[in-house]
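REQUEST FORM: STRUCTURE PREDICTION
Request ID: SP-0412
Submitted by: Lab K.M.
Chain count: 1
Length (residues): 838
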Amino acid sequence: MIPRNDAHTPAAASSHTAGPKPRSFKPRSFKQSAAGALSLTLGLTLACGPALATPAQAAPITAPEPAVDIKAPRIEVESVLSSSVLEISWSNSQLVGRYGDFKIQVYNSEHKVIATRTANYWEHEARIEALPAGGTYTVTVSGLINGQWYESAPSAPLELSEDPGAVQLSVSGTVTAGKDAQLSVSGVGYTGGAASDGVYVVVAKADAWRAGKRPSEGAFTRSVFVPASDIKNGTFNATLDIAASELPLSHGEHYVIGTLAAGSKMMTDRRLDATTALNIGAAPVDSVNASVSKRTVHASWKAPALDQRITDYDVTLYRVDGTSRSFVDKRSLGAGTTSVDFLDVKDGSYVVEVKAGIRASASELYPVFSTGTFSNVFEVKPVSTVPAAPHKPIILPIAGIIPALWWVKPDDGGSPITSYRIVLTDSKGKTTEIMVEGNDTDAGFMALSNHYTPGETYTAVIYAINANGESAPSLPSDPYTMPGSSSNPTPEPTPEPTPEPEPSKPVERANPVISASPLSLDPAQKNTVHVKGSGYKGVGTDAGVYVFVVEKSKWQPGQVPSRSLVRDMVTYLHIPTLVDGAFETDLVIDANLLDSTKEYVLGVTGAHYGMTVTDTHAALNISLKGAPEKPEPTPEPKPKPKPEPTPEPEIPSAPIFRDVPPTTQFYDEIQWLAKMGITTGYPDGTFRPLQSVERAAMAAYFYRMAGSPKVELPAVSPFKDVDPSFPFYKEIVWMKQQGITTGWDDGTFRPHDPVNRDAMAAFFFRYDHASPRVDPQAHFKDVNPNTMFYHEIQWLASQGITTGWDDGTYRPTTAINRDAMAVFIYRYEHLKNKRPRA
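STATUS: Completed
RESULT:
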């Protein structure tokens, strides 16, 4: 504790039992600037002598040591709370025997008792109110032991002068960890006797000093003395300089700026005590280094040496073009990470920026970031290697007759692809090789009219070749039976019974949404239509999209467009680059190309390879000026899940995720999911509702639904692509142990693959340990007894967990989004106790 000023006047000292051991107080040293602002020079203890008009000149204060009866209480803290209220606390730690009661007596300057209070033996603090203002008082505390009272030494003199005004403290200026700072401190209401010796402005750790309580020794990191002469009408202004290394920071540590009475009032008068938070921003990272290996950029940094509070890092990769920078990619990372890789970076000049962030508490959604620290500018240069393996090819007929092989051009490894090697394998294992010249187009095509036996079933594998060699093989195509009849048909063998299969291989599908303006065009004029699209992900979008205008009669959504469609386009635009499945472009249609007697649509399909994948198709009707009037058919709305009457969720009042405002579809279910701890969202505070659910995330959801039970982790991972360092290793192991997942035949789990709706039904069915009895009612027109996981989908519908789409379909091979998953989990948890067992 900071020592009390127990020195009294000679008269007071002779009137009571002598005071405690003499104490000395070393005042701090201050100086005043030419402009009148006051700055601390150095010093570690606060001056607290009576009448401290000039702290640098205050002499040490001493008092004779009194003789204290060890049975008497000892006053610890004396406080003036107002012009008529005192507060006293005492200790009996050195006493013999047990107290029956305590008696508190207040003496005036003539040593007359003017107030008496009693306290029970367990109490150690008392407040004395309604004392006459304007006087100076001392207090003693007596303890009753075995019928005899033992009185303490008297308190320090306590002056009940007039109260100050409404004390208000304000601070302007910013403090950044690791940097020098200057703050301007202003006070209003510093009047009355409490301010007669001036005011101290102090910086303290938040947990070391509180307004209204006597400060502990060493509580203040910095202080500035404001003499009474500088307080005008209760108002003062002071400048506080803080050096870069002056505030040592540790995790969760916070500081306050406060004021307290100076001089003889400092230790006893609490009426000028006031504090306000000192917010200290995160220190920037010390340095950032970047290196390049082929097309991978490795960035590393040093955590701020002066700031151990860091909770987050934002790492951004910029492309450098002269003096300008353009955004390329960004990572949001936790405090334990000091490096990151950016993969497949294109040729060019780059720089990496790292920002350190802190959160005021664990409940804060978003960190507050420091200024950025940049790496050196570096080059990513062309690297020539063998090509990447081509994507999985497909075999489809041209015009429904001639089988053809389609594939997407892979990354050429920095050297042009010169040829492709195609290997066809029939049902007996016989292979046929075909060599095809390479080209610069985004997709490849090869008619198979001279390379197959009619009626035989084939799969195809493709190798890409450049000057450096041959790529790894693509995944084999799906089996395709060629048209015609085999001369020696062989009956297909009956397959052996196998265990229930794992969910079908999740394939990311396109979910196109397009908009365009204007859609009312004048055929006699040149028209520019601004087109936007999103959801162009997965199979069929690797080579980009085509945007075009075509006669409505020649647009057949849901069917593979023939090559004549391309020839019959009024105009088209090939967009090879999609950013997260989205594009934005202008489509120019010259005058006199549109016939006002015909109907047109604005259509979008996947380019080349994508033109064979129907889920990349989308179209909008176009109206033409001068066209015959007729009623416009109402377009069928995009199917969406039917609203399900479910119990009212327990929903947090404020949005938990910054990308899920209250207007978001399934807002209540997502809020509930977060409240229950089943989802935590991403480190940047988002939920990303329209993103597909990955298999690893699905494992985490079911594990948390089960109450996060203890898991006995095996010595060896059950899946060869999930090692013990994987973030959801425990959850995936638990899911395997519970029989909810079996993994794939090749021993993998494939944690980052999206989960399809049929697989989701299987996971819920196994988690619920439901009966395998089949519901005889047909729920969906696209789910029949031959559908994989037919039983599980039927069960999911019979329990009311899914209702399907408005068109009566379930769409089992469609990937499920995170918002829809929140709905299924919510329904399952709220309905499982109200439904009959299937």
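NOTES: DSSP finds eight helices and 44 strands in the chain.
Reviewed by: T.R.
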